[in-house]
Amino acid sequence: MMPNHFRRETPAGFTLVELLIVVLVIGMVTLFAFPRAGAVLDHVQVRGARTAIVNKLNATRIAARSSNRVAVLRLAGNSLWLELNAMTGTSKTVLPGGVGLNSSYGVTVSGPDSVKFDPRGLSQSGTQTYLVSRNGWSDSVTINGYGRITR
User: Fold this and answer.
1) How far is residue 134's CA from residue 48's CA, in Å, rounded to a whole number?
2) Mind listing the pLDDT tens digit for each residue in 61-70?
3) Is the separation of the CB atoms in 53 and 130 below 8 Å?
4) CA separation (Å) from 30 to 5, 11, 27, 33, 39?
5) Please, what sign has the CA dihedral across residues 27, 28, 34, 40?
């Protein structure tokens, strides 16, 4: 065994300069990645709202076919909800499960205030287009007279 006075002691750990370099590198990566993350979030929210609209359109079409009544998808104030028209008269049944697109996704939606489906599942409203937008990102949902949903 070697005597203690011949051993060379090296301190364990990191120096202050090494830690500052690591913090600087992490800061630079964050600086460049943060704006891109915001843009990705906007794109994801627009796509999520578009999917919510497509789901509500499909639910409206299914409700019309299964109830054998006219079903209407309503849009007002960035909110979507589903109504079933009565067989006779003017009364309507509002089905639960409305979606607030602005509160859920932070988007604005423009388009027709209603899309009607007859009991066969065909659109009575002709070709309609909804436009979803948020911070420069936008996407659209188009439904034709046959009830087919496209982008």
Assistant:
1) 12
2) 999 999 888 9
3) yes
4) 47, 31, 5, 5, 14
5) negative
Q: What is the 3-state secondary structure (H, E, C) of the chain?
A: CCCHHHCCCCCCCCCHHHHHHHHHHHHHHHHHHHHHHHHHHHHHHHHHHHHHHHHHHHHHHHHHHHHCCCEEEEEECCEEEEEEECCCCCCEEEEEEEEEHHHHHCCEEECCCEEEECCCCCECCCCEEEEEEECCEEEEEEECCCCCEEC
At residue 2, the pLDDT reads 57
Read off the pTM. 0.74
Q: What is the predicted pLDDT for the residue at 1?
A: 56
Per-run averaged pLDDT (10 residues), the chain, 151 residues: 63 84 90 77 90 91 90 89 80 81 90 90 87 90 84 72
Residue 86 has a pLDDT of 76
* Residue the block writes with tokens 């891109």: 36
Query: Cα(149)–Cα(117) distance, rounded to whole angstroms?
Result: 13
Q: How many beta carbons lie within 10 A of that of residue 8, not counting itself?
A: 4
Query: Can you tell me the distance from the alpha carbon of 89 to that of 115, in angstroms, rounded to the nearest whole number?
Result: 20
